[in-house]
C-alpha cells in the first residue's frame, strides 16, 4: 500500500520502480510480471515523464502526471523459474484520501486494504522535509496523519510489516554526505513519534530510502503559485532524466513479501517442497535476490525481519 498526501510522488515512484526492476533482473530466477493494464498504465506514465522532461526548455510549473483518482490496484505476479509463485497488488491512492472524512467510501476502502497490507510505502516529499517551514512541511507530508493511520497496524498482535519511508524530490540533497545527513536529520525530527513507536515494535521494520525518480529536476527555492507557497524546481540542463535507486524499494518489498510467503506455507506444502527438494533452490534464489538490496539505508525497528539467510 502506498501512502502519502497528493503530489508527493507515489505514482511517479511506482512507474519508475517497475521500469527499473523489469530492466535489470534478467538472470534472476524471479521474474516480475505485470497484468496488461498495469503494464500499459505504468509504461505510459514512465514515457510521459521521460518525454516531457527531456525537452531542454521544460520548467516544472505543475505536476507532470495527472493526480491519481480514488484507489488504483496495480496487479503483479512474481514467477519463480517461470512458474507463478506470488501474486501481489500495489495499491496506489489519491493522496487526498489521507485528508478525507472518515465516512468517505474511498477512506473506508483504503483502511480495509491498509489492514491487509504486508508492505507499506510512505512516500515523502524531501524538498518540503528539508526546506519547508513547519506549516509547509506538515501540509506536504502530514507526518501526524500518517502516524495516526499506521500506529494501530504496527501493534504486537498484528502480522509483521515492512514500512518503507521513500523520500522523493531530494536530488539536491543526494550530492554529498553532509546534505544526505541533513535530509536524514529532517526526517528523524519530523517523524519522531513514528521512530519512537518503531523502536518498541518487534514485528515491524522500517527502512529509509531516498530515491531519484527524475534525477534532472532540482529544488531551488520556495515561491508562490496562485498565492500559495510552493516548492519550486528547475530542470538541470546538464543532467539526463535518470531515475536512481528506484528499484530499491521494490527489492525490499519483494524480498520481505517472499520471505513471509515462504514462512507461511502450509505444513503439507512445506513437506511436498522438502520431498521434491524445492526448498533449497528457492531459498538460494531469495538470498541472491535479497543481496541486490543496498545495505547503506537507515533501519528502524526490528532489523532481523529483513534478514534473509541461507
Ligand atoms: N524533482 C522531483 N520531482 C518529483 C519526484 N517525484 C515526483 N516528482 C514531481 O511530483 C509530481 C507529482 O507526482 P505524482 O507521482 O503524480 O504524485 P502522487 O503522490 O501520485 O500524487 P496524487 O496522485 O495526487 O496523490 C510529479 O509529476 C513530478 O513533477 C522526484 O523524485 N523529484
Ligand atoms: Mg498519483
Automatic annotation (TrEMBL):
InterPro entries in the cross-refs: DO-GTPase2, P-loop_NTPase
A Pfam cross-reference name: DO-GTPase2
Coiled coil: none
Recorded superkingdom: Bacteria
Domain Double-GTPase: 3-193
Protein name per the record: Double-GTPase 2 domain-containing protein
Originating organism: Thioploca ingrica
Amino acid at each position: 500500500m502506498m501512502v502519502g498526501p497528493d503530489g508527493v510522488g507515489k505514482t511517479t515512484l511506482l512507474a519508475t520502480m517497475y521500469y527499473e526492476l523489469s530492466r535489470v533482473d534478467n538472470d534472476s530466477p524471479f521474474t516480475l510480471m505485470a497484468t496488461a493494464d498495469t503494464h500499459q498504465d505504468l509504461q505510459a506514465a514512465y514515457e510521459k515523464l521521460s518525454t516531457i522532461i527531456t525537452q531542454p526548455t521544460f520548467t516544472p510549473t505543475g505536476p507532470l502526471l495527472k493526480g491519481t483518482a480514488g484507489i488504483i490496484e496495480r496487479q503483479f505476479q512474481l514467477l519463480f523459474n517461470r512458474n507463478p509463485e506470488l501474486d501481489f497488488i500495489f495499491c496506489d491512492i489519491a493522496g487526498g484520501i489521507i485528508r478525507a472524512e472518515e465516512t468517505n467510501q474511498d477512506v473506508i476502502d483504503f483502511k480495509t486494504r491498509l489492514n491487509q497490507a504486508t508492505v507499506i510505502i510512505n512516500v515523502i516529499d524531501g524538498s518540503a522535509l528539508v526546506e519547508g517551514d513547519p506549516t509547509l512541511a506538515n501540509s506536504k507530508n502530514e507526518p501526524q496523519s500518517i502516524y495516526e493511520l499506521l500506529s494501530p497496524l504496527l501493534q504486537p498482535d498484528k502480522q509483521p510489516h515492512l514500512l518503507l519511508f521513500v523520500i522523493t524530490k531530494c536530488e539536491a540533497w543526494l550530492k554529498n554526505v553532509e546534505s544526505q545527513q541533513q535530509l536524514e536529520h529532517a526526517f528523524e525530527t519530523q517523524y519522531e513519534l513514528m521512530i519512537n513507536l518503531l523502536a518498541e515494535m518487534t514485528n515491524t521494520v522500517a527502512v529509509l530510502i531516498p530515491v531519484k525518480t527524475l534525477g534532472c529536476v532540482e529544488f531551488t527555492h520556495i515561491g508562490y503559485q496562485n498565492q500559495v507557497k510552493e516548492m519550486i524546481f528547475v530542470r538541470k540542463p546538464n543532467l539526463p532524466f535518470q531515475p536512481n535507486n528506484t528499484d530499491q524499494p521494490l527489492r525490499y518489498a519483494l524480498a520481505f513479501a517472499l520471505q513471509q510467503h515462504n514462512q507461511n506455507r502450509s505444513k503439507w506444502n512445506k513437506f511436498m517442497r522438502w520431498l521434491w527438494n524445492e526448498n533449497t533452490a528457492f531459498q538460494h534464489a531469495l538470498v541472491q535476490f535479497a543481496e541486490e538490496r543496498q545495505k547503506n539505508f537507515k533501519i528502524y525497528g526490528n532489523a532481523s525481519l529483513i534478514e534473509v539467510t541461507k
